[in-house]
Every structure is written in C-alpha cells, then in structure tokens.
Queue: 3 jobs
Job 1
Amino acid sequence: IRTLFEQTFDAAQDNFSELIEHLFPGGRGRLRLLEPTPKLVPVPMATAPDSDAPAAAPAAATEADEADPDEPGDDGAGIEIEVTPAGKASRRLSLLSGGEKSLVALAFVFSVFLARPSPFYILDEVEAALDDANIDRFLQLVRRFSDRAQFVVVTHQKRTMDAADVLYGVTMGSGGISKVISRRLPRSEQDPLEPTAAA
Amino acid sequence: IRTLFEQTFDAAQDNFSELIEHLFPGGRGRLRLLEPTPKLVPVPMATAPDSDAPAAAPAAATEADEADPDEPGDDGAGIEIEVTPAGKASRRLSLLSGGEKSLVALAFVFSVFLARPSPFYILDEVEAALDDANIDRFLQLVRRFSDRAQFVVVTHQKRTMDAADVLYGVTMGSGGISKVISRRLPRSEQDPLEPTAAA
Amino acid sequence: MHLKSISIKGFKSFPDRMNLVFSPGVSVIVGPNGCGKSNITDAVLWALGEQSPTTVRGSTMQDVIYNGGAGQKPRREAEVEVVLDATGSAAAEQFAEISIRRTLDRDGHGSYHLNGARCRLADVIETLADANLGGDMHSVIGQGKVESIVLSKPRERRLLVEEAA
Amino acid sequence: MHLKSISIKGFKSFPDRMNLVFSPGVSVIVGPNGCGKSNITDAVLWALGEQSPTTVRGSTMQDVIYNGGAGQKPRREAEVEVVLDATGSAAAEQFAEISIRRTLDRDGHGSYHLNGARCRLADVIETLADANLGGDMHSVIGQGKVESIVLSKPRERRLLVEEAA
Ligand SMILES: Nc1ncnc2c1ncn2[C@@H]1O[C@H](COP(=O)(O)OP(=O)(O)OP(=O)(O)O)[C@@H](O)[C@H]1O
Ligand SMILES: Nc1ncnc2c1ncn2[C@@H]1O[C@H](COP(=O)(O)OP(=O)(O)OP(=O)(O)O)[C@@H](O)[C@H]1O
Ligand SMILES: [Mg+2]
Ligand SMILES: [Mg+2]
C-alpha cells in the first residue's frame, strides 16, 4: 500500500518526462526521488592515529554527499530534477540558460498539477525569459490543460494574449488608481495554439 | 576638499534625477546619502528601575532605525534610492512593479556610469521585465551614451536588435556547440531611437 | 472549483471598490509596467491568508493599504474578498460558493470572514486545504519567482509535492 | 578604452576556438534560448578573474569546461582571452592593447597571463583597476540580476559607487 505522496510523485514523474519532451523537443528529463540517508554522525572510535578514513561512513555516504554537499545536516530526502536538452550532455541544472530554467520549472509545476490539480493557477510573467518559440510551447500546455483547472496568466507580452478565453486590460489612471476592463475573446475552431492531433 | 567618493556621488545624484525624468515621464527621483550614525551601544547606567527610556539613545537614533531597522549593527552609511512615478505617492521601493524596479536599477547604473564611465558595459537581458515603451526609453539611453562607453547588450528580443551598430547572431548546433555570426548594421541619419533634439 | 470573483478595496492601487469576475478556462491580464497587474495577484494571495509582508512586496503588512496619490488621500483600511465557485467539489457539501474576506487597518487590526461569518486564519487555511489550495499557495507563481523552483533544494521540491498530495 | 576581442576555447558551449571581434558603440547579441549568449557574458567575467563558480552558474569552477555533447568528447581545459583596446587610456602607457588570458583544467590547475606573460590574479586585478574596471565588475549586469540593485541594502549601493570612484 503506497502513501499518497508516493502515488502523487509517481504520476508527477511520468508527467514530467512527457512534458520535457514537449518543451525541449529532442531532449529528455526525469524526476528522481532521493531516499533519506542515515545522518553521518561522527562517532569517536579507537582508530589508528594515522588512519584518515572517516569513522562513520556507511555505503550511502556518496549519495548523501551528492544530495546536498553544502549541508551535512541534510538527510538527503528530496526530489532531484535532471534535464538534458537535445544534443547536449547531461550536466548541472544551474548551467542551463535562463529560458531553459524557466521551462524546467514550468514542467515541474505542470507535472504536479496533472497528478493533483489545484482549482486555479495564477502565473505572473512566468514567460519573461522565454523566446517566441518557447512561449508558444508553454501556451499550448496552458490551453491543453485549461479543461482541468482555471489559469490566470499575468503578462505584458502581446503573444500571450492570444491564448486567452477572457482578456483583462489594466491601466493606471490619475491618483495612481488601477482600472480594469474585460473582454471575452472568441476562440476559433482552428486554434493556432492547439495542435489538431488530440493532445 | 572633497573625497573622490563625494565628487562621484554628487555627479551621480544629479544624473539620477535627470535619468528618472527620462525613464518615468512625469515622475521624480533622487539618491540620498545616509550619513553614518554612531552605533547604539547599550551602556549600563544608574537609571530608575521603572524608567524604560533606552539608556544609550543619541538624537540620531531615529535615522539609524530608518537606515536599516533589521540590522542594529548597521552604521547607516549608504545610498538610499527614492522614486515616485507620475501621479503616485512616494512609497517603499519594494512595492514598485517588476518593470519599474528594472528602470530604477538601470537609472542607478547609468547615473554612476555618467559620473565615472567604465570602458565597457555588458547588459544581459536587463530589459526582460520592460514593456515596449520602456524598452524604447532604455534603448534611447544606450544609444545616447554609446559615444562614452562600449555597450554589449545580450537579448532574445527583436526590438532591442534595432539599437545595434553591430549584431551578433548566436545559434546552438549539434554537439551542443554555439556558433556566432556577426553583421554590421547601417544606422540611418533619421534614427527612430535617437530624438532629433540634442540629447 | 474555480475562482469566481474578487473584490478589492483600499488594497494597493485599488482605493475604491473594484470587482472582477472570472470564468473557467484561460484568463490573461495585460497592461503596461506598473499599471496594477501583479497587485491583483498579491490581492488573491493576501486574501487567502499570506502571512509574510515581503511575499506581497511590503516590509510591514500595512504597506498593502492604498497610500494615496495625486489628488487622493490614503485609505485607512484594505479589504479583499475572494469568491470560489465550489460546484462539484468535495468542499461544497454545504455551499455552492466559498467566500473568503480579509481586512487590515492602519493600526494593524485585521479580520478574516468565511461566508460572511468572522473566523480565524486557521479556519481559512482548513477550508483552502479541503479545496486543494495548499498552505504554500504553490499554485500561485509570483513575478520573478519561476526560476526559484529550479534553484531550490531537492527537499523543498519534495515539500511542494507533499503539500499537493 | 573598449573591448576589442574575445577568444573562447573549451569554455561552456564553445569547445573549439571561437574568436569574436568587437567595435566601439552598441553591440547586440541575439539568439534563441540556450544558444550560448550568456555563456559569452560568463566568458568575459571569468577571464577577468571571477572567483565564485556560482556567478558563472557552476558549483565548482571546473563546471565551465566544455562537458561534451552528441558526438563530442568533453574537453580537458577551458581558456578565454580578452583583449582590451587601450588607445587613449591612462592604462596604455606601454601597450595599445591589454590581453588577459585565463586557463583552467579538470584537475583544477589554472593560470593567468597578461600580454602573454604568466602572472597572478592580483596583477590582473591591478591592471583592471587602472582601466576603471572595478573588482566587482559592476559594469557587467548578469541575466536576472538587474533588480538586485533595487533590492540591495543602501550600504551595498555605496560600495558600488566607491568602487567606481
Ligand atoms: N499601498 C499602495 N498604495 C498605492 N499604490 C501602490 C501601493 N502598493 C503598490 N502600489 C503601486 O502599484 C504599482 C505596482 O503595480 P504592479 O506591481 O501591479 O504593476 P504591474 O502591472 O505588475 O507591472 P509590471 O508589468 O512592471 O510587473 C507601483 O507603481 C506602486 O507604486
Ligand atoms: N560546461 C559546459 N559544457 C557544455 N555545455 C554547457 C556548459 N555549460 C553550459 N552549457 C550549456 O550552455 C547552455 C546555456 O547557454 P546560455 O546560458 O548562454 O544560453 P542563452 O543564449 O543565454 O539563453 P537564454 O536566452 O535562455 O538566456 C545550456 O544549455 C548548457 O547546457
Ligand atoms: Mg508585475
Ligand atoms: Mg541567457
């Protein structure tokens, strides 16, 4: 019998790999669950004075070090993200570009969403680092998932407006007072953001 | 006789107010130098047991608190930035919008640049949070100042390309190898980014 | 369940009552820099119980009260009401709608109301948990915050999934 | 003074030698996400003596060495050379050009060269200071870093001005 966390994580794991294939065509990615490792507690032992092997090092040491080398107190339990864009070798997430990092973060958020949707999502300028092609890939996902949750997307970019069912235009008037007008947008049968194949 | 810092700061101060007028039409802003305040060191004194006035509180206490309420160890010496966009009341910088914060930061960088230019500036996606009108205001400054320093602007936005003397197009090829091709752009006499009035 | 409407008064750049109605599907909020878009995001976060002023860009929570402008006096109180349409949701045993309202005045006195009845923050949190809107509001990604998911520690991401689960 | 050219080899996404010539005025570097633009920014920072791997998005400094890709082996060493055109500058008493070259290999062994002669980091820093390129490279604003100036403490901004002065 699996915990609710494990069920959710398993579903998120499958979703994540699929979403990375959509957002990084030709690329691949996965989520990995790092198991908690026993804490390495230095234990005074009767070791030879010139021995320099750490006294309390179980086999899992390497993984605990990898999990969080900066924090020896970390028990290493956590979710690791691995992504390899097309044609590149797998490497540290931190080396990814600004746009690539945004895509990875969005893939993670959506993979959890698909496993356990919240009723609504508010995304404020999440596409700021994305180029036009990646904005389109992101918006395709928003359109695709909009039957399962409500999405409120805040943006200053025109391209993102095309994904809306309803548009809210905000302006700042005198006195520093914001004013909002809304308009429902007709969505055509042929939606440039929605691929004709069943998504 | 003033220190080099004071001379630089005075010049930056004048520049900042002017730059804010350009970037926030109808708005105003200034840099303020906070003088170092004597540290408040609690001194044991023979005070009445029911007195609750702090024992070591010189007149400057209020300013030290304002300078950095979170860090009692801070001597309060620093540069404070105040900006009031058109029609709004002056308030905390933190409440400004993402785009407004970017403009304030750029005004600060340029105000120091005008006081003491470095030979070159590399600006990587600094306009990501700016709407089109603000990108234009920013690019006007870059063009205007390009006779005093070399600017290398990294961007994924097309609008910014129009400000270039030389364009460098980067692409990622197989094996994860970046390739660069460059092209000099003719700049016409009538430059949409350069106002005809002497700037 | 979805966000049905939000009513903002005295909060940030909305000194006078402003009602916004939302529909299911995709809503896009657009406008130039500084016009008030993220203030709407902050209003939702705040009404749903945000405890940290810095998350809504203030240094004290009173910073969210409309502070005046050209020809306008500051307001003395901020109020935001969020109405969730709960039809078809497990949380909707009694109500088709769930209304959460929060207020705060200049002296720092505030209140929460659930469907018009005064309540505590804990009651709001419990109601949201039933609606699968977790304590950390992981379903709201604030401006500039998207990359933090990639830069965060593995342990923090686990918490995100545990909360959703 | 201005940046005259940069030569990148084995650094990040530039496994084979890549030379870029710059002119005075405004240069704009464009391209899609992940193509290598910010890697060029990192190369300049790194050649001019950056000491913190996180500033160039690594966790160890060896992370900047080209790590391989489809059909490509990793390289064993990274090298970046920055040439400054010093004509008309106070720093140009002897040379019309100042060349700064940095290398690093997989074992963590590195070197600095100033105009072809091996030197220490301190010599590079001193040369840059004469050219008004301060220790903190405040003239380079990295991706996602522009707002930090507004969020920084007053004391940090003062340091920025002091360094420029
Ligand atoms: N308490 C307050 N009283 C009055 N105005 C406020 C208050 N708090 C914030 N504001 C104003 O709201 C504006 C910021 O609005 P907001 O962050 O919503 O902009 P935005 O539309 O998201 O812009 P951007 O596209 O740049 O992110 C600021 O100019 C700020 O002065
Ligand atoms: N040591 C390395 N070896 C090989 N490739 C690397 C190395 N370090 C980084 N890269 C690759 O460089 C790419 C990032 O490049 P860069 O940050 O320059 O992109 P960018 O053009 O700035 O994109 P964006 O517009 O998204 O900011 C990543 O895909 C990363 O995998
Ligand atoms: Mg905003
Ligand atoms: Mg980049």
Note: The pocket of adenosine-5'-triphosphate (ligand 1) is lined by residues A 156, 176; B 85, 88, 91, 95-100, 129; C 12-13, 31, 33-39, 63-67, 143 (CB under 6 Å).
Job 2
Amino acid sequence: PAHLLVCGNEKGGSGKSTLGLHIATALLNKGLRVGVIDLDIRQQTMARFFAYRAQTASIKSLDLAHPRVETLAPVRRDRVSDVTHEERCALFRLLLDMRNDCDVVIVDTPGASTNLSDIAHSQADTLITPMNDSFVDFDVLGRIDPVDGTLKNTSQYAHTVRQARRERRRLKGTVLDWVVVRNRQSAFSSRNERKVDDGLRRVSMQLGFRLVDGIAERVVYRELFPLGLTVMDAEALYALDVCQRSSPSHKAACREIDRLVRMLRLPIDDE
Amino acid sequence: PAHLLVCGNEKGGSGKSTLGLHIATALLNKGLRVGVIDLDIRQQTMARFFAYRAQTASIKSLDLAHPRVETLAPVRRDRVSDVTHEERCALFRLLLDMRNDCDVVIVDTPGASTNLSDIAHSQADTLITPMNDSFVDFDVLGRIDPVDGTLKNTSQYAHTVRQARRERRRLKGTVLDWVVVRNRQSAFSSRNERKVDDGLRRVSMQLGFRLVDGIAERVVYRELFPLGLTVMDAEALYALDVCQRSSPSHKAACREIDRLVRMLRLPIDDE
Ligand SMILES: Nc1ncnc2c1ncn2[C@@H]1O[C@H](COP(=O)(O)OP(=O)(O)OP(=O)(O)O)[C@@H](O)[C@H]1O
Ligand SMILES: Nc1ncnc2c1ncn2[C@@H]1O[C@H](COP(=O)(O)OP(=O)(O)OP(=O)(O)O)[C@@H](O)[C@H]1O
Ligand SMILES: [Mg+2]
Ligand SMILES: [Mg+2]
C-alpha cells in the first residue's frame, strides 16, 4: 500500500510545495508510481507544476514521468468540529483509491490551518516540515527563552501535529515520522542561523521530530517551475539545454535532493 | 485622519509581516503615531514582534517608541457572503477608533484569503505587496505566456485586489495606491530574476500596480525579531551592542527601508 508523505507547515512560504515537487520528481525518476494530492485549492502550486510538466512533455516531445494528480477543496475552519462528513469521506476515499496504484502519495497542504490539512496530518506516515532559518518561522513551533534557551511554550503548529498524532495512534496504532528540514539556507553561516539550529536541536525531543540536513537557497529550485521541470530531470534538461546543468550549484542541488529523499527513509527499494 | 497601509499577498512567506514591522519601526522613529492591526490571528507575527519590543524596552530599560497594537480574528471563508455583520463592524469600529490617535495604521494580513483581509484591502489607501523573485509567487498575480511574455490569465490575488478596488470606489471614491516590491532578492543577478522583473513590468499597467525597488535577502531583517528590534532602532542597537551595526549589510538595510518608506509616498511630513 502507498506510503503517505505529507508536506506540512502552517507558516507560509516555508517551502512545502517546492520540496514536495522536487521529492515527487526524484521518486518518479526512480521509476516509482507517485500520487500527488494538492490540498491548497487556491494556489495549487503542485497541481500547476505538473500541468506545466505535461505541457512541456507535449510541446517538446519529451518522455517525462508524470504522477497521478488530484486536488481537493478544503473548507477553512476554526474548530475541529467544523469538518464535514462529506469532506472527510472525499479525502479518505481518495487515499484508499490511490493506495493501490501508487507507491508513494505526496500531499501538499496550504500555509494555513484547514480541516483537510488536519486529516492529512493524522493519516501521514511521514510528515516533512520545511522552515526558514528564522525565529519568525520557529515561532509556529514554539517559543524559546532568550536567556536559557529552553522551550517556554509550544505553538499552534506543534499542537496541530500533536493532535494529529493522537488521532493517528487512536486509528492506526503506528507512529508518525516527523522530519523537520531547514530550507533556503544561506551559503554563509551566521550567528542567527546557529541560534535557530541550536533551538531546533533542543526542542526536537520534546516536540517529537528529527532534524535532517538543510536545503540551500538556490535559484535552480524555482527557475524551472514554469516548465514543470526540476534539477532531477537530467535527461529532459539535457535535451532542452535549458540551464547550466554542469554548474556547481546544479550538481549540488541534485545531491541535496537525493540526500533529502534518503533521509526521509521512505520504504522504497533503492539500488 | 490616519493613512491606512495594508500589507497584502495571498502567497505565504512573501514578507508581509517582515516589511510591515520594518516600516512601522521606521515611522515610529520619525516620531509618527503608528497603529498596527494584526489580522493573522493564528501566527500574529506583528503582534508578537511588538510584545517582544515592549519586553526588551522593560528588561533593558530602553526608551523605545511603540505603536498601538490590535488583533482581530477573521473567520476564513470561501464566499464573500460569509462575512458576518459583527466582523465587518468590529473592523470598521477599530479603524474609526484608530483614525484619530494614529498618523498611519498598518494592517498585516495572513497568507490566505479571509473576509477581514478583503475588507482591509477595500479600505486601504496604500497596499504593499511583497513577493519573492519567483514564478511560484508570480502565479498568484497572473500567468505569463512563456513564448511571447504577455499576460495570459489573472490569478486569485489580482482578483482580490480588483474586487477590493471596486468596493473602494463604490464607498470612498478615492484611488488605491498598489505598490509591489520584490523581497529577499539575491545579491547576484540571475536570468530567473530578470524574467520575473520583466514579467512584473509588463503586467503592472494591466493589473494596476507600480513596481518599486526591491529589498535584499539580509539576515539582519530577521535576526532581531526575538528582541522586537529592527535595523531602524539605531540607538537601541547601540545601547545593547547586539549586532554588527557598522557592517555594510546593516547600513545598506537602513537605506533600503528608508527608501521603501519614501517610495510608498505616505502623506507624512518629512524633513
Ligand atoms: N530552496 C529554495 N531555493 C530557492 N527558492 C526557494 C527554495 N524553497 C522555496 N523557494 C521559493 O520560496 C517561495 C516559497 O516556497 P513555496 O511556495 O514552496 O512554499 P510553501 O510553503 O509551499 O508556501 P505556501 O504556504 O504559500 O503554500 C517560492 O517563491 C519558492 O520558489
Ligand atoms: N528581506 C528579507 N531578508 C531576510 N529574511 C526575510 C526577508 N523577508 C522575509 N524574511 C524571512 O522570510 C520568512 C517569511 O517572511 P514573513 O513571515 O514576513 O512573510 P509573510 O508574508 O508575513 O508570511 P505569512 O504569509 O506566513 O504571514 C520569515 O522567516 C522572515 O524572517
Ligand atoms: Mg505551497
Ligand atoms: Mg505574516
């Protein structure tokens, strides 16, 4: 049955969609059957990316691997009780349906609190949470005491995940693997970045996530978006001669995404 | 009466709160009376920043200028008709109340579509929309034809602003000044960044915004967040000796924020 990977972070612009589409293309190019559920009905970054991909494949006659893509419309709400029965059913039915024709299903959630996003969090086998090297982003996980560095409060997104975990234990009995990854990291180290790193390591036990190596800020992670391609599509990029494939940044990007996929420890057969 | 400046962009993580708090502190340090309405009830980045500021002023015995800060809880919705009468009244009453004791009121909106955010957009005198140098961010404004560079479709956030403008003309008869500013710009030019810039210039007439000089990616724009300070708080930073005030990046940051405030052309008396 499909392994469910959810891209989650209530903080906007942390990189959920960007990492989601890079992981998806990496898995597709390994020959896996990938499903994508885009729960961000207004922006639909993932759905649009794969629409551009289909367009590029057709216009340029390229042999590209494509996932099965589905979008569902969440109704944003402020209380869990607002989840409607039909919405729950629609998502569960979709997950069941994709269970058999996909190896991995990637669910992209919006940068907001929605009922369907919560359900996705409670169904996830792996939850990946990207974040910026910033205490503005850190704040949705928890507040650190500026004096002694201990966790003073847990914030709304940590609560969302804790709630989802309880729901999951109740229904599935299996454990959620919560992976936090810093994204858009600067090439240069800074005192701020070391403080964020230190803060994350201190709270990882308490909040229940494991911290993996970060992903750098690289133009190549966004410049291929309109084409529906990523650095992982080496053959297509070669055929199109569309960006500096041999640049150090490009090779480093491929290695970073490969490493991220390995660190997710998805139950996929790898050579 | 107070000039209403709204920080808006449905795209998450574009820098609404970051630019909002920097503009607010710049205006406070010019001696203006500043009001802040934080409509992002879950993250409350602006409200927390000024709470940290009050804390720093008290703990370190610093003479810092503070704004009047208010938060209001929006109910997210999918149809305009879902705005409740009480919610509209609460926001209008607050705006009226702040009209007389503030020179500028800054409203921070969440990275999502909410009813109160829409009302704020229709009441704004100036709307500032930051965005990343990225077609992922561009997509919420419109789609560009990859072949001839013309605007193919307008997207959801462009519609939100257009709707707000109609509402405003109907109620106020005055014109909205929509300012778009690229944020988190890399120090290095790239083909991608030139394409985004070109795209923005092409659509600015049609969508009705003016494009101003961008703001660079600088650690100093986020590292002072936990202290409730910004580069514009020169005296406080001197007293605390808390970051490399004389670094080139620090001086460049001050100039960038000063320039941004000038380009907003707020009706404030300046020396
Ligand atoms: N590692 C990276 N390098 C360069 N640009 C990046 C990187 N990660 C994300 N971006 C850019 O940062 C912006 C935010 O990323 P993205 O849209 O993936 O975040 P998100 O969490 O999905 O946002 P939302 O909450 O709006 O759904 C986009 O403009 C994207 O192109
Ligand atoms: N010019 C900049 N230089 C460095 N970091 C920045 C800059 N602008 C924003 N950031 C960082 O980028 C992230 C997103 O910024 P911010 O939270 O202000 O965006 P937002 O539009 O308010 O997001 P949301 O939609 O979640 O409210 C934060 O971690 C912030 O510290
Ligand atoms: Mg997204
Ligand atoms: Mg914000």
Note: The first helix of chain A runs from residue 16 to 28.
Job 3
Amino acid sequence: KQISTFLMQNKRHFLIPASQVATVQVDNSLTHAFMVLSKLGYSRIPVVRDDAKFAGELSMPMITEQMLKLDEIDTSCLDQMTVADVMDETVNTVNNPYDLEEIMHLLVDDNFLPVVSEAQDFVGIITRREMMKSLNFLAHN
Amino acid sequence: KQISTFLMQNKRHFLIPASQVATVQVDNSLTHAFMVLSKLGYSRIPVVRDDAKFAGELSMPMITEQMLKLDEIDTSCLDQMTVADVMDETVNTVNNPYDLEEIMHLLVDDNFLPVVSEAQDFVGIITRREMMKSLNFLAHN
Ligand SMILES: Nc1ncnc2c1ncn2[C@@H]1O[C@@H]2COP(=O)(O)O[C@H]3[C@@H](O)[C@H](n4cnc5c(N)ncnc54)O[C@@H]3COP(=O)(O)O[C@H]2[C@H]1O
Ligand SMILES: Nc1ncnc2c1ncn2[C@@H]1O[C@@H]2COP(=O)(O)O[C@H]3[C@@H](O)[C@H](n4cnc5c(N)ncnc54)O[C@@H]3COP(=O)(O)O[C@H]2[C@H]1O
C-alpha cells in the first residue's frame, strides 16, 4: 500500500510516449522489419496499423523462425512475408498507465507493456526499467 | 531498508542456477549460435569458455549485424565466425547473489545479471522477473 502511494507520486515518469517508441507497421515486409530490429537492437517492439492503432508485437525470433524452415539459414522468403504474418497479437496491454497494481503484476512476465486506449490508439509503453528505477529509489529512501 | 530485509528472507529464490541457463560456447560458430538463439527465443544469453567459465554475453543483434554488412541479408560469413568474434565482454556481473542493493541497482539497466565467482566460474543468473515477483509480493503484503 505504501509502495503504491509512493509510486503514484512519481507516476508521470512511467509512460514512454508513442513518439519515443520504435515500431513497425503491420504491412512492412519481414526484410524491412529484420533490418529495423537488427539496427535498433531492441528485442521486441510494438506493431501498429494505419500508423497509430496498436496491432501487436514483433520480436526477432518470429522472423528468424521463418529463415530456419529447412534447418539451414534461408532468407529468400522474407521479401514475400509481412509483419502481420508473424506478429504476436495476443499480448497483454493496459489502458490506465496509473493502475500500478495491475502494471506491477503484468511486468513480472512482460519486459514492457503497451498502453492502448479503448479505441485501440497506441499511446506508449511502460517498461520494467522505469519500474525498477522507481522501486530502487523507494528502497533507498 | 525494510525492502532489503524482506527480500533477504526470500533470497534463495533469486538465483537461477547455471544448469537451468541456456548458454553458448566462445568457439561455437555464429551459424550454430544463430539457430540456438532463434529456437530458444531468449534475447540475450551468457557465453562460457571451457564449459564452465563466464566469458560474456551474446544477443541476436550481434549476429544479425554481421549479416547486414552490405545492407542486404547475407548469411555466408556466419560459418567462418565464432561467438568470441562478436560477444559482449564488458557486461556487469555480480559475485554475491545476496547483495540486494547492488543487484537492484544493476537490474535497472540490465535484463539479467550473471553471477560469477572470483575464479570466473559461471554460477547462474539473476533476472528482472525474479526481482519483480518478489517486489510484487512485497507490495501486496
Ligand atoms: N538503446 C538502449 N539504450 C539504453 N538501454 C537499453 C537500450 N536497449 C536496451 N536497453 C536495456 O536493455 C533492457 C532490455 O532491452 P530489450 O530490447 O530486450 O527490451 C526492451 C524492448 O523490447 C522494449 N523497449 C524499450 N524501449 C523501447 C523503445 N524506445 N522503443 C521500442 N521498444 C522499446 O521494452 C523492453 C524493456 O526495456 P527496458 O528499458 O525495461 O530494458 C532495457 C534497457 O534496460
Ligand atoms: N521461455 C520463456 N518462458 C517464460 N517466460 C519467458 C521466456 N522467455 C522470455 N520470457 C519472459 O520475457 C522476458 C524477457 O525475456 P528475454 O529473453 O528478452 O530476456 C531474458 C534472457 O535474456 C535472460 N534469460 C532468462 N532466463 C534465461 C535462461 N533460462 N537461459 C538463458 N537466458 C535467460 O534473462 C532475460 C530476462 O529474463 P526474465 O525472466 O526477467 O524476463 C523474461 C520473461 O519474463
């Protein structure tokens, strides 16, 4: 209870706004998505449709799995496939970035949580790093 | 202070022992390492030498960067390169899995922490998930 109250005072620091979040589009080719993930270095990023609606998440293994169909590395299929063909559409999301109990619970199993409005607008993400920073500060004070 | 005391009581749950941690060897080919990372789905894993000494960490971007040298996907170089050629040897490690203050501080920037003895033996890892589970329990009690 004390932790929630303290964290509530710092709530404005949790949300990383959509403008600062790397994403890919549902209709991007897997070749393009592969290059984006490789150069950015993030292990998993949100996928959007029509530029601003949340659609799911994409990780590198979802793409490399397509390259290893015959147990040798073949990249030729990537041009014909899109992010929509492999993305994860079943991910947990939150629509209230201030519901810390739910957020702390979900961050046990997820590296980050997409914040999505009722109308499916992609608002931003909440990361384990932001939560750990706050909990660290709390533990020292 | 209260948090550290509480967490200390649960300390036996933090360390994931080396036997349960997926790793690659310094001399594995990048083709082999690519397949291991793709099939396991972990974004980053420890690298060991002589089977049991900690050597560094390997992530998929370290491998895919080699495939994108000419801005198109070329996998032919992977057979001739080893994990040692691309791994990250500068990672934070801890040798005391019960120094919670240091662990909480380092888990702000790292997804997991390798636990390594003075003699460089790879003992296991401490993950953000394990820390989040404990902090979640603390917040509810
Ligand atoms: N370019 C960078 N600069 C500084 N530190 C970096 C970094 N890339 C990774 N890290 C560190 O590594 C952690 C794991 O990153 P990962 O990409 O696996 O996992 C990330 C990634 O999947 C996603 N993510 C974070 N920031 C993002 C962004 N701006 N755009 C898209 N996805 C993001 O959220 C996950 C958790 O992020 P979190 O910050 O908690 O945790 C990050 C952060 O502590
Ligand atoms: N097979 C699986 N089963 C259940 N949940 C899974 C999973 N793979 C990933 N996750 C979930 O996704 C988080 C991020 O995984 P990631 O592979 O990016 O990042 C992982 C990975 O780089 C490494 N890691 C965790 N367990 C490992 C293991 N057994 N062997 C090697 N590396 C491991 O530590 C990082 C943080 O792990 P953490 O558990 O905190 O956080 C994990 C966990 O909550």
Note: The mean pLDDT of chain B is 90.
